[in-house]
Design the sequence.
């Protein structure tokens, strides 16, 4: 049975999931920034931050303050790079064909990295599964991300008009955007891929 995403539900649940996990997310981001310069380790921490945190949030599991250091994430380096490489090639070709096909492919394959790392799927299987689960939901996914981006842009423009506090307010809005985006991705993954 095809699962359908509802615009309001994705925004509401994404906002809720993101704010609920704000503490662990911010600590993991800070740890990632501190360790980004360490070769090999930074690959595992990047996978942990980009995918592990989202996968845990999608299952309503507790996210450890040091989640990105889980050695499990380094195990999936090959699948991560192969999947990301295949995605990049396809999206680049799609973008070269008048932009819209690239956007559609990016949304269609948006769950593939999570499927490869969290569910242990092969790169091509992850891309195919992602395409199947996002079928009929790409418009909703695009609109949700567009609305969040526009809201952040509007807040940034408003905050830039406030002297002396503009940088701090934009930084806080950026953190909120990070939490909400992780929550939205977690909710979408939970809704579309929980039974895979």
Sequence:
């Amino acid at each position: 049975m095809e699962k359908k995403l509802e615009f309001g539900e994705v925004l509401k649940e994404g906002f809720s999931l993101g704010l609920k996990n704000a503490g662990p997310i911010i600590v993991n981001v800070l740890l990632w920034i501190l360790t980004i310069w360490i070769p090999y380790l930074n690959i595992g921490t990047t996978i942990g931050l980009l995918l592990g945190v989202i996968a845990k949030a999608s299952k309503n599991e507790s996210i450890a303050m040091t989640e990105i250091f889980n050695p499990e994430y380094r195990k999936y380096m090959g699948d991560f790079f192969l999947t990301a490489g295949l995605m990049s090639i396809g999206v680049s070709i799609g973008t070269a064909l008048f932009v819209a096909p690239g956007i559609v492919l990016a949304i269609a394959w948006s769950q593939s990295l999570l499927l490869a790392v969290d569910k242990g799927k092969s790169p091509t299987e992850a891309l195919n599964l992602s395409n199947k689960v996002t079928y009929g939901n790409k418009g909703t996914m695009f609109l949700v991300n567009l609305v969040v981006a526009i809201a952040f842009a509007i807040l940034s423009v408003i905050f830039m008009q406030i002297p002396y506090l503009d940088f701090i307010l934009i930084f806080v809005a950026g953190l909120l955007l990070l939490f909400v985006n992780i929550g939205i991705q977690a909710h979408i993954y939970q809704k579309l891929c929980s039974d895979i």
About this structure: The chain has a mean pLDDT of 95. The chain has nine helices and no strands. The chain has one domain: 7-193. The first helix runs from residue 7 to 20.
